[in-house]
């Protein structure tokens, strides 16, 4: 059974002949800007494993970049989607009310750690759409135009969200960008100046926010601050709780809403259903939460959650859309959340994180170029450097590791400003045997690539 199999490469080359043929067709039919560096053309997937067209089997530690927290092709989700498909595929929620949309909204209102006792939820199709809608809601509620985002942020590829995103390689040749967006400093503790304590780093980052108020936009013109509880593309950087608590106070002092972008960090990835539960426990719950990726095990849907008074400030007709809250996606999401709660995947996430970080701690003594290991639960980043003293980023090594691991049946992906971080996003349904096998492949790749 593929679900419990281990990686196995059976072709003499990668890609194999059938995969190569499809990849060649891709090159002719699809824009080159939609890049792919992996020698894989998928035929089927189960759990944390996928099989390509030539029968090669790969252990997937990318999981659709965080989409597959319950793995590929979960049989109970398949059954739920089939059952819904036999009733109807589509029912635009602006036209007809359907049970799945309402039930999913009720469930997420119950789960999401946003401020308020009465909460409302609506759906879009992608993480970027969720973030755009969160901004629209914040502007409608506050009557203010401007936004503050942070260094290292990634919020999407639409006009507004690529403006919010820090890495401007995602905007090459696509300007002009949206207006009203300002950027403050996110605390990157591993790369903070030598000699600074954590408290001093937090103070410097808060000062950068004050500088925005002084030199960019007055605080009373800011609708919202938006940040990821654990930055994804920025390098798998957890937002330190003392800093988040300070941001929460700044927002409260100035009437600014706090938006938690949980597109990648949500749905048990960080050891909680949502990473901002850690914020809530510290007394710093967000006002608006956005979620997507693993919400429906691979079907496209995203969610925006806020307390009722915020949601009800939005003018009629300004939110929603044709496919938002599609019945098939809602059915998949309801079953996915049920499975996450039933099987306690949040606890499994913490367990996986402990196994991975313990192994990585051993590697740090063997491989000095592994500069930092960080994360929450099973959302873990491994940062590689050229020198442990200078901490010069080593994107070349990570690129080599990606290819070397793929040759042995393990799929990993980079992150970070310089591509210097290996991100760990394995499905939470991965078996211990598969997990240790993948760690062995990565360790052997480290030996090969650092010789």
TrEMBL record:
Its cofactor is pyridoxal 5'-phosphate. It is an enzyme of class 2 (transferase). InterPro entries: Aminotrans_3 (IPR005814), Aminotrans_3_PPA_site (IPR049704), Class-III_PLP-dep_AT (IPR050103), PyrdxlP-dep_Trfase (IPR015424), PyrdxlP-dep_Trfase_major (IPR015421), PyrdxlP-dep_Trfase_small (IPR015422). GO terms for molecular function: (S)-3-amino-2-methylpropionate transaminase activity; 4-aminobutyrate:2-oxoglutarate transaminase activity; identical protein binding; pyridoxal phosphate binding. Pathway: Amino-acid degradation; 4-aminobutanoate degradation. The keyword Phosphoprotein does not apply. Keywords: Aminotransferase, Pyridoxal phosphate, Transferase. Gene3D superfamilies: Aspartate Aminotransferase, domain 1 (3.90.1150.10), Type I PLP-dependent aspartate aminotransferase-like (Major domain) (3.40.640.10). Its EC number is 2.6.1.19, 2.6.1.22. It catalyses: (S)-3-amino-2-methylpropanoate + 2-oxoglutarate = 2-methyl-3-oxopropanoate + L-glutamate; 4-aminobutanoate + 2-oxoglutarate = succinate semialdehyde + L-glutamate. Belongs to the class-III pyridoxal-phosphate-dependent aminotransferase family. This is (S)-3-amino-2-methylpropionate transaminase. It comes from Evtepia gabavorous.
């Amino acid at each position: 059974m593929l679900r419990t199999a281990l990686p196995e490469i059976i072709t003499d080359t990668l890609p194999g002949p059938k995969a190569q043929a499809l990849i060649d067709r891709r090159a002719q039919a699809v824009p080159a800007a939609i890049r792919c560096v992996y020698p894989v053309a998928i035929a089927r997937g189960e759990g944390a494993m996928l099989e390509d067209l030539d029968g090669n089997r790969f252990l997937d530690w990318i999981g659709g970049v965080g989409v597959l927290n319950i793995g590929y092709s979960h049989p109970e989700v398949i059954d739920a989607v089939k059952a819904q498909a036999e009733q109807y595929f589509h029912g635009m929620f602006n036209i007809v009310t359907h049970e799945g949309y309402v039930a999913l909204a009720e469930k997420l209102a119950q789960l999401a750690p946003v401020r308020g006792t009465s909460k409302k939820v609506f759906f879009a199709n992608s993480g970027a759409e969720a973030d755009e809608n969160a901004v629209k809601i914040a502007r409608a509620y506050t009557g203010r135009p401007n936004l503050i985002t942070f260094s290292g942020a990634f919020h999407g590829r639409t006009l507004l969200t690529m403006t919010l995103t820090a890495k401007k390689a995602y905007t090459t040749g696509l300007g002009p960008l949206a207006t009203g967006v300002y950027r403050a400093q996110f605390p990157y503790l591993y790369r903070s100046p030598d000699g600074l304590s954590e408290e001093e780093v937090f103070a410097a980052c808060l000062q950068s926010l004050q500088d925005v108020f002084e030199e960019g936009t007055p605080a009373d013109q800011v609708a919202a601050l938006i940040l990821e509880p654990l930055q994804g593309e920025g390098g798998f950087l957890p937002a330190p709780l003392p800093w988040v608590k300070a941001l929460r106070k700044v927002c409260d002092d100035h009437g600014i809403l706090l938006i938690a972008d949980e597109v990648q960090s949500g749905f048990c990835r960080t050891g909680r259903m949502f990473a901002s539960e850690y914020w809530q426990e510290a007394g710093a719950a967000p006002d608006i939460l956005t979620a997507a990726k693993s919400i429906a095990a691979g079907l496209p849907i995203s969610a925006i959650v806020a307390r009722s008074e915020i949601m009800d400030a939005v003018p009629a007709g300004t939110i929603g859309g044709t496919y938002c809250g599609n019945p098939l996606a809602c059915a998949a999401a309801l079953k996915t959340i049920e499975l996450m709660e039933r099987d306690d995947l949040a606890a499994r996430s913490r367990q996986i994180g402990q196994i991975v970080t313990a192994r990585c701690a051993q590697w740090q003594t063997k491989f000095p170029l592994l500069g930092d290991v960080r994360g929450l639960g099973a959302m873990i980043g491994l940062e590689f450097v050229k020198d442990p003293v200078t901490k010069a980023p080593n994107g070349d090594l990570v690129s080599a590791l990606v290819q070397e691991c793929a040759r042995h049946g393990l799929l990993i992906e980079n992150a970070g400003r310089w591509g210097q971080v290996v991100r760990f996003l394995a499905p939470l349904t991965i078996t211990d045997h598969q997990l240790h096998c993948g760690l062995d492949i990565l360790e052997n790749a480290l030996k090969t690539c650092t010789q």
